[in-house]
Amino acid sequence: MATILYVIAKNGFRDPEYFVPKNVLKTAGHTVMTASNGEKGELAHGADGGVAEIDIAIRDAHAGDYDAVVFAGGPGALENLDNEASYRLAQETVYKEKVLGAICIAPVVLARAGVLEGKKAVVWSSADDTTGIDAITEEGAEYIDEPVVKDGAVITARNPRAAQEFGEALSAYFM
């Protein structure tokens, strides 16, 4: 079974984008560790009121210690995760040929890290707001309008409604 590092914003992660895939992964027998921009032992707070204990600070995490690294979205994702520590972790994950996942707005973080260039991916958008699509395509990703998109070891998902399917796609990678 796989060990997965799930990266969430200390404040404002989207609850179903973390809790639903985490449950799918744990039910399948995988180990899920939680990383955040907070400190080990602190609590991260979801936008919908959920709480998660932080197992490791992003700055201390190394992709080589995990089989996959997954980024959750939510209103706090770009504010808390769009930074050099997250970019380094995403780049290291690709370099080590590990599975890299992101849901909702979090594929923007991967795109800004330079790891979606030439990859098919999906990101959150709406009829009124296509900034996520613009952000990933400007960094060389090919936007695919599907709930979950797999391109090699990179798995992206559109929004919380795709959380179950996202978790299943991540889990299936290790079966």
TrEMBL record:
Gene3D superfamilies: 3.40.50.880
Species, as recorded: Candidatus Azambacteria bacterium RBG_16_47_10
Cellular component terms per the entry's GO annotation: cytoplasm
Domain DJ-1/PfpI: start-end pairs: 6-170
Protein known as: DJ-1/PfpI domain-containing protein
Annotated CDD domains: GATase1_DJ-1 (cd03135)
InterPro entries tied to this protein: Class_I_gatase-like, DJ-1/PfpI, Prot/Nucl_acid_deglycase
